[in-house]
Amino acid sequence: MLVEPVALSDFFLSFFSAAMIILSAALYAALYAWAKIKTRPRFYWGAWLAYAALLVCIGIFSTVNHFTGYWLWLSLSLAVGYAFMPRFIWRLCVATHAEEPEHSHQSGGRHD
Amino acid sequence: MTLQAYQEKAAVCWADCKQRYAVFMANPHLSGGQKLAVHYFTVAMVLFMAQLLFGLLAGLQFLFPSFLYEILDFNVNRMVHINAMVVWMLYGFIGSVYWFLEDESGVEIVGLKWGRLAFWVLTGAVAIVVLVYLFIQFGAGNDTSLWLINEGREYIEAPRWADIGIVAVVLTFFYNVAATFAKGKWSGIAGVLTLDLVALAGLYLAGMFYVTNISVDQYWWWWVIHLWVEATWEVLVGCIMAWSLMKLLGVRRQVVQTWLYIEVALMFGSGILGLGHHYFWIGTPEYWFTIGGFFSALEPIPLVAMVVHSIYDSGVHRFKNSNHPALAWVIAHAFGNFLGAGVWGFMHTLPQINLYTHGTQWSASHGHLAFFGAYATINIAFFYLAVQQARGNVWMGGDLVNGWRWKTAAVLLNLGVLGMTVALLIAGYEQSFIERAVEGSTWAGYFAAQNHPWFMQAMVWRMVFGLMTAAGGGLLFWDLLEIGKGEQRPAAIIGDAATAE
């Protein structure tokens, strides 16, 4: 078998760290976006704290799920992917809304 | 009361229905396509109520196993509960597309008569299939029963004659969408929608042939179950959302279309090979552990990305909108999809832990919140948009008459589903622990887990929250029939006011 199952004693850690990966990634993304909107440095600190929590959760998750070999690429992908995804999406948000005139919102949209 | 009195009462009722139907068909606020859409929405709501009813019956049978035994068995209740859910989602999606098709293409629907015929054929077929589910689900399975009674595959049990009918109806729907756009204007939404409908009809075929090797059979069956839900439905909902956001929040077409393309890329990038998480334990090669595990882990990324855009829009545009109930349900969609599909999915998606959770109440917990959050919420949001237009594009902002009704329905439904999800999570945790890990998936382990106090208590709480959900569903039904009646104020215009900040 290519995978070693989670130990009985680690069940809760596996579930909890998995949930916390997604939740801390979302918190990191939310604080990062909010910091950009409000331009307040303390939200950046919050975002980095959330990202640090995300890294800890990835570490726990990888350990209890017995990640070795190529499974560690998954850990790396989660760490790198969640670090850059909010920045990438933010840039897309700014770019897609860039041509938006101040008062241009019309109900129903129009065919551009 | 005599038989004649019943007959007279039925005749009066029928005449009243016919009169109401005639009034509805003469509604000057709706186009032909929108009237057809309301037909779909009406059946969708009836099926939603059926889903709730049969879910309650199945839930009761966990608490009282002899309840309706050999009258309406658990397998039948569960089957109707899940099939009603799948079908009401589809009715909602098809109705939503018919609703905006003429607006989006700029021309009348090319084959409206075919669309109407397809609706009545589909509805008739659904009614017959439900009756067969309820009354003829015993005896040996053979080729005849496969064609006429039950195809035997979980979640898509409809007999083969009905399968063929479903494909025919979807093809009619596809023709209407493609031909209408071809006659009128094409747009980004039109292109994505048309291609997605090809996949929607095509993938269903994968669940319509039978092979004797159970691994191969399951392999193709998952094409329908997973790829429909985590690829084609997601994209279909993306198209519906894109059009809804233009109407509801006044978002520019260019913005929603760009994000629709991004969503399609992200969903297909992770969702298609995420299929592998269903191939862990059905006898497929071991490389599916890696493929399924890796791409399943990527599936929450679009949902996390959504958080950034939500913050951006709420911070910059402040959610100025023309329909408060619809927006509330769109927000419920964002949270429900994120929690149900993202968090609940990732918690047990890797094979290292899925070995213990697969097929336990964990799956039910994930399924309840994910389907509700990703699909039910969007359909309900669209129903409110439709009701607003049907009433003459009336005010649906703050200070609505009897506004307590939609708010209470939303709270009851969301809390009810969340409560059921948590209760099922506890039951699933206990099952994976005792039945799978400690007892090694034996029959003794199965019964030990089923009779454990944690499991029993979780099922009681599931029932409590199920009743809350049903109360919310009933209130929603009532509200959709009544909201906006007598309202004289016109709908808020999301134009200059929306960006005056």
From TrEMBL, chain A:
Chain ranges passing through the membrane: 12-31, 43-64, 70-90
UniProt superkingdom: Bacteria
Alphabetical keyword list: Membrane, Transmembrane, Transmembrane helix
Keyword Membrane: yes
Keyword Transmembrane: yes
Protein's UniProt name: Uncharacterized protein
Species of origin: Methylomonas rivi
From TrEMBL, chain B:
InterPro entries attached to this UniProt entry: Cyt_c_oxase-like_su1_sf, Cyt_C_Oxase_1
Annotated PANTHER family: CYTOCHROME C OXIDASE SUBUNIT 1, NITRIC OXIDE REDUCTASE SUBUNIT B
Residue ranges crossing the lipid bilayer per the database entry: 37-60, 80-101, 117-140, 160-182, 189-211, 223-246, 258-281, 287-312, 324-347, 367-387, 408-429, 459-481
Protein name: Cbb3-type cytochrome c oxidase subunit I
Keywords, ordered alphabetically: Membrane, Transmembrane, Transmembrane helix
Pfam families (alphabetical): COX1 (PF00115)
Entry annotated with the keyword Signal: no
